[in-house]
Amino acid sequence: MAIWNSLGKYRDTGLLVLRVGLGVMMIMHGLPKLQGGPELWAGVGKSMGNIGIHFIPTFWGFMAAATETVGGLFLLLGLFFRPVALLLAFTMVIAGLMHLSKGDGISGASHAIELCFVFLGLILVGPGKHSVDKK
């Protein structure tokens, strides 16, 4: 259909919509963790135990919260886009493993797994022309 073929010219606008939507949602998901303080960070950071990292859980929890919050902002802006998308993808791998290890099954881990694939795809596609990185 001609209408579908003509939408290709809006690729960069589509990437902007995707970046802004995902960025806002990551900020909303990460900010409460970031504001939660060291006790919450330690609990989040214990998820790194799923890949054999059991030291300084407070640091890892803070890094996850900061990645989701600041990374969400940078994703939204298209700033340091590919490194941020890689950090967010890694964070989602750990989140998915945490859900699986808690016995939540694939349905509990699916959101994190889906986001991981989205972030990996965005690494390949790039931020589009409506981004700070392209200015």
Automatic annotation (TrEMBL):
Please provide, in alphabetical order, the Gene Ontology terms of the cellular component aspect for this entry. plasma membrane
Any coiled-coil ranges, and where?
none
The alphabetical list of record keywords is: Cell membrane, Membrane, Transmembrane, Transmembrane helix
- How is the protein disposed in the membrane? Multi-pass membrane protein
Q: According to the lineage, what is the superkingdom? A: Bacteria
Keyword Signal tagged: no
User: Would you identify the family this protein belongs to, as annotated?
Assistant: Belongs to the DoxX family.
The name this protein carries in UniProt is DoxX family protein
Q: Which organism is it from?
A: Sphingobacterium siyangense
